[in-house]
Specification:
The chain is an alpha/beta fold and 260 residues long. It has one domain: Rossmann fold (3-Layer(aba) Sandwich). Helices cover 47% and strands 18% of the residues. The protein contains nine helices and seven strands. It has a seven-stranded mixed beta sheet with strand order 3-2-1-4-5-7-6, with helices on both faces. Strand 4, helix 6 and strand 5 form a beta-alpha-beta unit. The longest helix is centred in the C-terminal third of the chain and has 28 residues. It is globular and about 55 Å long. The termini are far apart. The mean pLDDT is 88.
Length: 260
């Protein structure tokens, strides 16, 4: 019974990531609609994007999901937390990342695939963690067939995550134009599903979550008690703002579709 109630709660504005989750799911499904033929994903994590893509898009002939061993420690740590806290964190964060679900383990800066071998190259919330973005897209260009698509979604106005060793960049639209020019791609579209409303809701809610986790005990208790009402207010405010204002200069994330 409690599991059902908690699962339903996650799908309401009382859940801190309610608005950003709605936008991310819509964004990802739209990106998946562009997939066809042979698809390569880098930074696949626990492969939920692959599962969703194969469920929605029948134009996909083969889907290879890859990730890099530099994240092994993070995978292990996250798995330990999720398994120790049980049902609640399963609902909040999904299943722990499992290396066994990854098709190929490889470095996105030095892919082990032949040139001109994929129709689509896909990466979601990966580019901000890449030390050399030019080499990253150069490798994407190499493995794509002529006319193939490179599809990217990366946070823009989003908190630091991953620490100084794993979180490096936030790219403007001009930054993507520069990367495309350096690596030979032609940009077909840069856009966002998440505007100022989603951005401000996400920033405030992430701040509250971090202070509950890390602040002085009195602050943690007080924020924990009022947090559902904060989350509800910020999510609803953000939802309404995004309906009326589509100023993409305040985007939570950008989607970029490039062609070889």
């Amino acid at each position: 019974m409690f599991r059902v109630v908690f699962t339903l709660l996650v799908n309401t504005p009382f859940y801190p990531h309610w608005l950003s989750m709605i936008k991310a799911n819509a964004e990802n499904d739209e990106l998946i609609s562009h997939f066809y033929g042979r698809v390569l994903e880098t930074g696949c994590g626990n492969c939920v994007k692959k599962e969703r893509a194969l469920q929605l898009n029948k134009k996909i002939k083969e889907y290879i999901a890859t990730d890099y061993s530099s994240w092994d420690e993070d995978f292990t740590k996250q798995a330990r937390i999720i398994e120790s806290l049980g049902m609640i964190t399963h609902i909040l964060y999904g299943k722990a990342k499992d290396k066994a679900r990854i098709d190929v383990e490889c470095n996105a800066l030095d892919l082990q695939f032949k040139k001109n071998s994929f129709d689509v190259y896909y990466n979601y919330s990966v580019l901000e963690h890449i030390e050399d973005p030019v080499q990253f897209f150069a490798e994407a260009y190499r493995v794509l067939k002529k006319g193939g698509l490179c599809i990217t979604s990366t946070p823009f106005l989003y908190r630091d995550h991953g620490g100084i060793e794993k979180d490096f960049y936030r790219f403007t639209k001009g930054g993507y134009q520069y990367l495309a020019k350096r690596t030979g791609f032609t940009i077909e579209r840069i856009y966002t599903y998440s505007y100022f409303g989603t951005t401000i809701a996400s920033m405030i809610n992430h701040y509250v979550i971090r202070k509950i986790a890390e602040g002085p005990i009195i602050i943690r208790i007080a924020l924990f008690l009022v947090s559902p009402f904060i989350f509800f207010a910020t999510n609803m405010f953000g939802f309404i703002i995004d309906i009326f204002d589509h100023d993409d200069r305040f985007a939570y994330s950008y989607c970029v579709i490039m062609r070889k």
